[in-house]
Amino acid sequence: MPRPTLPSRRLAAAALSATAALALTACSPASSPEDSSEGSGDPASASSAVALVEPGRLTVCSESNYPPFEMEEGGEMVGLDMDLGREIAADLGVEMKNVTLAFESIQSGAALDTDQCDVAISALSITEERRTVMDFSDPYYDNQLGLVTDGESGIGSIDEAREQRARVGVMQGTLGEDQAAELGLEAVQFEDATTMFTDLSTGGVDAVLDDVTAISEHSEANPGFVLQETRDVDDQLGVAVQKGNQPMLDQVNATLDRIEQDGTLDRIVEQWIPVHEN
């Protein structure tokens, strides 16, 4: 199962400008000079203009369990998105603090608008709808969707899932949910990825339509899972900031530029989403 490719962030940047403006519900407290101290390299040059919800910390909101992007290990949140958050915090000269929230509060923009976090890094697909309530960075990852079964359902493709009116698990508020509707699948919504894949293993649903990366991660604990079909989709992941927070957006993009150029982004992706041999 090949790893989805990294996008060309420079070419995609022009397509990611915001399409609507919302009034900010609250003002974030300004950082002290110590909070915005410069780190090493050019990305820190934008940090002096960045206000933080909690001085001295970059607060990152994410879902609690969506491996390999975010998950808890040994009492600590780890994953691709968490490593990305730490890179942004390092360029700001502060520590990263993670806040885990329900995915709906993240993807709706509510967590950012109520100052629960400075940035949302939670495998967020960049969509036109979401860009009306939050601003997105340049993309940091290209995604794919896959249909996975327990290997015993007799379903071998998306077409067969539709024809058999199979119960297909999807994560609420994700591209998988949107694609299931477009494909005419009988979707069963979940708020938590772990519950969704558990239901697949116990027969609660017949299949799951989700990111290939998430499927790969959960398949390691469920060797009976079979990836039946993959689908290339226009799905790029980005870091979200509160609508109109240009200083923070500039800082995030500066960090993304740095880690793409120095190879850090490739190393992070390869650590959490290793290349799978066919």
Write the layout of secondary structure elements.
Blueprint: H1 9-12, E1 57-62, E2 71-73, E3 76-78, H2 80-92, E4 95-100, H3 103-107, H4 110-113, E5 119-120, E6 134-136, E7 141-149, H5 158-163, E8 167-171, H6 175-182, E9 186-190, H7 193-202, E10 207-211, H8 212-221, E11 226-237, E12 240-242, H9 246-261, H10 264-272
Parallel strand pairs: 1-4, 1-5, 8-9, 8-10
Antiparallel strand pairs: 2-3, 5-12, 6-12, 7-10, 7-11
Helix pairs in contact: 2-9
Order of helices and strands: HEEEHEHHEEEHEHEHEHEEHH
Percent helix, as a range, is: 25-40%
The CATH H-level superfamily of the largest domain is Periplasmic binding protein-like II
Q: CATH architecture of the largest domain, please?
A: 3-Layer(aba) Sandwich
Q: Which parts are unreliable, with pLDDT below 50 for 5 consecutive residues or more? A: 1-41
Mean pLDDT equals 83
Largest sheet: 5 strands, mixed
Count of individual helical segments = 10
Query: Which class best fits the helix and strand makeup?
Result: alpha/beta
Query: Class of the largest domain in CATH?
Result: Alpha Beta
> Please, how many domains?
2
Number of strands: 12
Keywords: Signal
Pfam family, one: SBP_bac_3
Organism: Kocuria dechangensis
Subcellular location: Cell envelope
